[in-house]
């Protein structure tokens, strides 16, 4: 691999042991992928921070990095952890789990990471077309490549931490324009509202299941809302090795990329396949409605608040996962208190996928997230149904 003089200096230990180790690891991975050089990254987003998913082995790794006096070199944000760091007791989290989780947080903050604890880093700092990132959260990676036109692979948690320390990543995969060309065209047959995030999430599940990997192309695009694309990219990244889609009218490089693609294999998805996944109504009362996977943004929460405006008190527990950033905005608007008075519970810093609280409390769940529909039954052994986002208010306000 070609290295600049600065990179050679780092590798030789002139900038400290941990930077040399970090760069050596990144180079080894890059060489295994036939990368010819490294690129500078402007934003790192670290995943793998919940004690539920990384356990003691992950904690030991982070401790070893911090023990070498490492600090991040570029703007670096953090994925959700395994609990609300302020209100973990109300979630039923054990003292032992909480102590381990707090230790992980203490360590990554020592490294200089921004305390974001969200899977939506693009709401904290908007990526721009063509910039190189090193992001580890699959849903965020999908948004960065698909919606914003930034360049990032889906990196593992340890590599994101090492990348943050040196501000570099290998130039391979989606960091190269020739690897961003669509590989298969997706055609939706039949009428269905793909602007609804639940339905676009179901589309992501089906696309992931049918093509497994590659870069899907949507020519006659009906995925026109931000929330729909956010939900789609999260679900397709969960059920497939798909870190980018090319969408007409959305993806910044669209025109250039379809010219390079040529004639593609076409995969048809019938609207009825989506309707089989998204239940227009349910005939039972769920234990809870979970929203916010990926973390709910202001637009989603405002939409939900309008749906339940005539409902004095919700009749089904609702838990909305969101970021500290959005939670603070809701508080400033007075909407947080209004919704809490109706019985809505907000949790920040975490989400049902990476926290043990779901399996501790619930068995029958309704969601509006394709990613939750995919992961929750597999990780927590619960029953999950998905309803249209624009009808979730009917579920929570329905009398028992």
TrEMBL record:
It catalyses: (R)-5-phosphomevalonate = (2E)-3-methyl-5-phosphooxypent-2-enoate + H2O. Keywords: Iron, Lyase. The keyword Lyase applies. Pfam families: AcnX (PF04412). Residues 1-390 form the Phosphomevalonate dehydratase large subunit-like domain. Its EC number is 4.2.1.182. The keyword Amino-acid biosynthesis does not apply. PANTHER family: DUF521 DOMAIN PROTEIN (AFU_ORTHOLOGUE AFUA_6G00490). Component of a hydro-lyase that catalyzes the dehydration of mevalonate 5-phosphate (MVA5P) to form trans-anhydromevalonate 5-phosphate (tAHMP). Involved in the archaeal mevalonate (MVA) pathway, which provides fundamental precursors for isoprenoid biosynthesis, such as isopentenyl diphosphate (IPP) and dimethylallyl diphosphate (DMAPP). Belongs to the AcnX type II large subunit family. This is Phosphomevalonate dehydratase large subunit. It comes from Fervidicoccus fontis. The lineage of its organism: Archaea, Thermoproteota, Thermoprotei, Fervidicoccales, Fervidicoccaceae.
